[in-house]
């Protein structure tokens, strides 16, 4: 079993700027690796093959399920304070990270969550399939540097390296080595062309693509656009694409990325089912919820860009035009999982195999097979095609996935599909999409978003990170940074009034006020993983 600490060693540096690096290893560096690498000391033979590996260990599954089940009761038990130092809106990665920081500094805070669970776009569902199913984030990018894996408690949570490489299906057969080489070298060229274009001006990625991608063009476009970033390349800023941090390797969490994230909220009081409906910053900060109004000195708002501009929260005064503009230019793309339980591994794929199709148009998908050695397979649809498909409902999405697989492996595969479920993130009311991508010409919006608004509201979340946007790690870091900025703004914690002295005791001179928080909460500091970004 490979635990978190194993991840800190032996990482080969293969640049890639995809949201899901997925072992494509064709980033801005020139390295090409199309054969499966041997991940972190594992031999290929020891990889989790669904036919040979024990399925998810019962104890770790129960631990994951119990961890998740415990959350609502925990959140509901805490009364809503009327006045605090900081109100944090949203208990996804950014909100949890911010709350830990604020708690660690001994400041009073309230963490509000609109839905009935924590984690936001990083949640694990353990009930639909009886195995952990990450409905949002699943890939842990650059695990040796990822702040979330750095903090993972070891007990009951296993993080293991994602296999490098991918398979490509050309009709009913797999791509041969030479074909894969062609595909991967074209991706390297496409990545370089985008980076080159970004140096000259912030055009769209589509404008920057080389013209001679031949019949691999639709797949290159799918991998770099919808699969990587949730939008078609024509909607993606070349500068945003080029600035996104190189991801050298990926990992998975056997109990689910959402389980891992939720474990980091242990000890943090979360008010579930408590949406912020209005934030008034005319005198201090007043945050309205259906359960009452909380006053504070600052607010950290971690809701997605689409939620922030949806009108779900009424800001008084209104959002500044620069923030509103930035939020609009960082609108969320579309990315959904169509989860299929496929019995008996009829496709003959290994655990966590990543599969693409050499498609002739944008109506395509990717599949992560046999997730963590279970029969769960995730067919990924994204971009404009994925958005249109998801708008037609879950049944249409599942039909598409079944037909797509039948086209690649034959109609019999349909018989092996048992249970199914599809996410529809664009319709999730507290998210309204997948992850942010800057529109062409709008990369600078990310920095605008991180500036405080009227010295009272700090936006945080994946969109507010210049290099790790669209990821859980980026959201986490941005939450910590917003908290640090707020804590600086609030200054040192004042000393609590001295306890009454016994009459006979000599009066002691009060010590200079150096704030010792009551019941200090100590959380491990997260290493900075930003590259060249000012703090
Ligand atoms: C399908 C999908 C796949 C993804 N895959 C990956 C991946 O493999 N790896 C990766 O690193 N990232 C991935 N991501 C992106 C990643 O999930 C996000 O970047 C990250 O989780 C965002 O965290 P956040 O804290 O910024 O926002 P969120 O997680 O959206 O948290 C914001 C929280 O605010 C709450 N909220 C909204 N409105 C209100 C309100 N009015 N009052 C109170 N609370 C409110 C929401 O319910 C939510 O819990 C994926 C995302 C999706 C959707």
Structure notes:
The chain has 2 domains: 9-58 and 167-234 and 333-427, Polyamine Oxidase, Chain A, domain 2 (Alpha-Beta Complex), CATH 3.90.660; 78-164 and 249-332 and 431-493, 3-Layer(bba) Sandwich (FAD/NAD(P)-binding domain). Mean pLDDT is 82; it is low at 1-77 and 499-535. It has helices spanning 58-76, 93-104, 147-150, 177-200, 205-208, 217-229, 238-243, 257-263, 305-308, 321-329, 383-391, 394-409, 413-416, 445-450, 472-490, and strands at 86-89, 109-112, 124-125, 133-134, 140-141, 159-161, 167-170, 173-174, 250-253, 278-280, 285-289, 292-296, 298-301, 314-316, 335-342, 354-357, 366-368, 376-382, 417-422, 457-459. The longest helix has 24 residues, at 177-200. Helix content is 29%, strand content 15%. It has 15 helices and 20 strands. By secondary structure, it is α/β, with parallel strands linked by helices. The strands form 5 sheets. A 7-stranded mixed beta sheet has the order 8-7-16-17-18-15-19. The chain binds flavin-adenine dinucleotide.
Secondary-structure blueprint:
Layout: H1 58-76, E1 86-89, H2 93-104, E2 109-112, E3 124-125, E4 133-134, E5 140-141, H3 147-150, E6 159-161, E7 167-170, E8 173-174, H4 177-200, H5 205-208, H6 217-229, H7 238-243, E9 250-253, H8 257-263, E10 278-280, E11 285-289, E12 292-296, E13 298-301, H9 305-308, E14 314-316, H10 321-329, E15 335-342, E16 354-357, E17 366-368, E18 376-382, H11 383-391, H12 394-409, H13 413-416, E19 417-422, H14 445-450, E20 457-459, H15 472-490
Parallel strand pairs: 1-2, 1-13, 7-16, 10-14, 13-20
Antiparallel strand pairs: 3-4, 5-9, 6-9, 7-8, 10-11, 11-12, 15-18, 15-19, 16-17, 17-18
Helix pairs in contact: 2-15
The structure holds flavin-adenine dinucleotide.
């Amino acid at each position: 079993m490979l635990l978190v600490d194993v991840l800190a060693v032996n990482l080969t540096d293969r640049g890639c700027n995809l949201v899901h690096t997925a072992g494509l290893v064709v980033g801005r560096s020139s390295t090409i690796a199309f054969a499966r690498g041997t991940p972190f000391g594992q031999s290929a033979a020891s990889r989790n093959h669904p036919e040979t590996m024990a399925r998810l260990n019962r104890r770790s599954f129960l631990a994951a399920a119990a961890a998740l089940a415990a959350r609502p009761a925990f959140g509901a038990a805490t009364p809503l304070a009327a006045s605090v130092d900081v109100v944090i809106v949203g208990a996804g990665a950014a909100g949890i990270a911010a709350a830990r920081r604020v708690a660690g500094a001994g400041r009073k805070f309230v963490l509000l969550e609109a839905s009935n669970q924590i984690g936001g776009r990083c949640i694990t569902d353990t009930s639909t399939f009886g195995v952990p199913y990450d409905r949002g984030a699943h890939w842990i990018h650059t695990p040796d540097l990822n702040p979330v894996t750095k903090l993972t408690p070891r007990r009951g949570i296993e993080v293991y390296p994602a296999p490098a490489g991918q398979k490509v299906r050309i009709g009913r057969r797999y791509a041969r080595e030479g074909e894969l080489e062609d595909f991967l070298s074209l991706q390297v060229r496409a990545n370089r062309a985008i980076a080159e274009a970004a140096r000259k001006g912030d055009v769209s990625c589509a404008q920057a693509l080389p013209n001679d991608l031949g019949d691999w063009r639709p797949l290159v476009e799918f991998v770099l656009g919808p699969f990587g970033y949730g939008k078609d390349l024509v909607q993606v800023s070349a500068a945003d694409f080029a600035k996104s941090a190189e991801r050298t390797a990926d990992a998975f969490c056997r109990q689910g990325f959402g389980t891992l994230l939720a474990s980091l909220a242990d000890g943090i009081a979360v008010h579930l089912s408590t949406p912020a409906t209005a934030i008034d910053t005319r005198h201090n900060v007043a945050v309205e919820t259906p359960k009452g109004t909380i006053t504070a000195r600052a607010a950290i708002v971690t809701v997605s860009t689409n939620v922030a501009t949806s009108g779900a929260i009424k800001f008084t005064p209104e959002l500044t035009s620069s923030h509103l503009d930035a939020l609009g230019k960082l609108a969320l793309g579309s990315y959904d999982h169509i989860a299929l339980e496929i019995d008996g591994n009829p496709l003959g794929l290994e655990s966590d195999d990543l599969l693409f199709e050499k498609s002739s148009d944008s109506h395509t998908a990717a599949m992560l097979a046999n997730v963590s050695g279970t029969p769960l397979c995730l067919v990924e649809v994204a971009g404009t095609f994925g958005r249109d498909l998801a708008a037609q409902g879950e049944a249409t999405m599942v039909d598409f996935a079944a037909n797509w697989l039948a086209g690649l492996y034959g109609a019999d595969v349909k018989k092996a599909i048992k249970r199914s479920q599809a996410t529809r993130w664009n319709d999730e009311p507290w998210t309204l999409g997948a992850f942010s991508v800057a529109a062409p010409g709008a990369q600078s919006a990310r920095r605008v978003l991180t500036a405080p608004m009227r010295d009272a509201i700090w936006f945080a979340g994946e969109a507010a990170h210049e290099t790790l946007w669209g990821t859980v790690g980026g959201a986490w870091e941005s939450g910590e940074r917003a908290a640090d900025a707020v804590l600086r703004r609030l200054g040192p914690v004042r000393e609590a009034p001295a306890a009454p002295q016994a009459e006979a005791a000599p009066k002691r001179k009060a010590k200079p006020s150096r704030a010792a928080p009551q019941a200090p909460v100590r959380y491990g500091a997260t290493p900075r993983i930003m590259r060249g970004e000012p703090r």
